[in-house]
Write a structure and sequence with these properties.
By secondary structure, this protein is an alpha/beta fold. It has 5 helices and 5 strands, in the order E-H-E-H-E-H-E-H-E-H. The model has no long low-confidence stretch (mean pLDDT 95).
Length: 100
């Protein structure tokens, strides 16, 4: 796992105040999303980026983790504490189904 990658469980274990960004399309976000996540469609992320704070960790989630990896890497290189959720929304759903 790379420095900017975390599992969904790692995110849950992080008890600090954090920002969770769901990078999927709005329709997908509306259907199912991580509690507390905000939706910023990946194509509009660059417009949103200026509003990010360096005062709390940023966790990013997409479908499989590929898109969020790219953004988390960029943010980490720019001095943010940013993470991509490994396996993206699929990893979250696996975690959720394991608790049923």
């Amino acid at each position: 796992m790379k420095d900017y990658q975390r599992t969904f469980e790692n995110m849950l274990d992080d008890n600090r105040e954090k920002l969770i960004i769901d990078l999927r399309e709005p329709q997908e976000y509306e259907r199912e999303h991580v509690e507390g996540a905000i939706n910023v469609f990946w194509e509009k992320f660059d417009e949103f980026r200026s509003r990010l704070s360096r005062n709390k960790p940023i966790y990013m989630i997409c479908h499989k983790g590929d898109t969020s990896d790219g953004f988390a890497k960029q943010l980490t290189e720019a001095g943010y504490e940013a993470y991509s959720i490994v396996e993206g929304h699929r990893g979250y759903l696996r975690w959720k189904l394991a608790r049923i």
